[in-house]
Structure to design on (323 residues):
């Protein structure tokens, strides 16, 4: 565990140090491009390889109760995230805030820390990887697709709000163009109020159940997401047994001429953690004193929820599922 934590810290620190020494190379553009590489190439390969080759849904060793525990935990965390956002701001519920708080509460670093923890608990790298992947199944089938869905809703809602605000401002500017300075000042104040009211009202109506063009647009965006393609490919290979039979070297019907397929996916999939952590270090260095954007009280509350509340909920779930 100490080796795993030190590896993580060294990778992040290396990104921060190089960003300090070579700011022209390791800048915001580098962070943006590296994140795009992980998102569009490395992560889909990692997910497809993990599910399609290493997971056998038909195995007797597949512990469905274990997966259900994580699935229920993610659902409860989503409800807690939504409740906390509603309590904090009842007048304007942000889908983006709910998505971020959901990540804060329940996102588990399965690959980076989960597998080393399982390996140390069971004393076996094979068991560590197996149970780590089982823990990730609930993420692949539930949280990851919904996170993408929430962020797409947030993005479209923000674009819609900005468009409406610009339209209202332009209309009010035309209306007050020929008025006196005093009236202009009064109407300018009214304009800001109207913009806020119009934006809030129209954004609320934006996500109505009858707005089918919007839901169609969101659905197409989600379906085009490369991570969703990686999940779909992984489940297809696993459920069809193609990965287990033809791509796994331990299989009797293993096809050696197809070895490049799992090698290719694992090769790029292995880039996810180091590239992400290195980019995180660069990004942290670029933030400087603005790195922590929330109050100490909020930070403490999030850490307490993540490290104490959520684990105790999981203990209750293991009792409920008789694990």
């Amino acid at each position: 565990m100490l080796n795993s934590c030190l590896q993580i810290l060294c990778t992040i620190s290396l990104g921060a140090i190089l960003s300090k020494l070579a700011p022209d190379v390791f800048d915001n553009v580098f962070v943006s491009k590296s994140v795009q590489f992980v998102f569009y190439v490395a992560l889909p390969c990692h997910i497809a390889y993990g599910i399609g080759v290493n997971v056998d849904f038909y195995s007797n060793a597949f512990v469905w109760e274990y997966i259900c525990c994580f699935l229920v935990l993610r659902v409860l965390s989503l409800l807690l995230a939504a409740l906390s956002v509603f309590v904090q701001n009842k007048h304007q519920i942000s889908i983006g805030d709910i998505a971020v708080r959901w990540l804060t509460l329940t996102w588990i670093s399965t690959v980076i820390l989960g597998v080393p923890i399982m390996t140390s608990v069971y004393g076996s790298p094979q068991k560590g990887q197996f149970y780590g992947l089982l823990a990730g199944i609930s993420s692949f089938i539930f949280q990851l697709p919904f996170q993408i869905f929430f962020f797409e809703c947030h993005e479209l809602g923000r674009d819609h709000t900005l468009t409406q605000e610009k339209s209202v401002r332009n209309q009010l500017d035309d209306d007050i163009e020929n008025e006196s300075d005093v009236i202009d000042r009064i109407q300018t104040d009214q304009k800001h109020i109207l913009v806020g009211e119009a934006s809030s009202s129209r954004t609320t109506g934006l996500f109505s159940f009858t707005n089918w063009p919007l839901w169609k647009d969101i659905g197409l965006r989600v379906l085009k997401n490369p991570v969703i393609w990686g999940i779909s490919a992984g489940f297809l290979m696993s459920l069809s047994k193609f990965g287990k039979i033809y791509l796994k070297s331990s299989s009797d019907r293993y096809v050696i001429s197809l070895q490049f397929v799992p090698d290719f996916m694992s090769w790029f999939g292995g880039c996810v953690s180091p590239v992400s952590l290195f980019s995180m270090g660069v990004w942290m260095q670029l933030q400087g004193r603005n790195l922590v954007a929330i109050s100490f009280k909020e930070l403490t509350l999030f850490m307490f929820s993540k490290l104490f509340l959520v684990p105790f909920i999981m203990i209750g779930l293991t009792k409920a599922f008789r694990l």
Observations:
- Confidence is low (pLDDT under 50) at residues 193-204.
- The longest helix spans residues 125-175.
- Residues 2-141+228-320 form one domain.
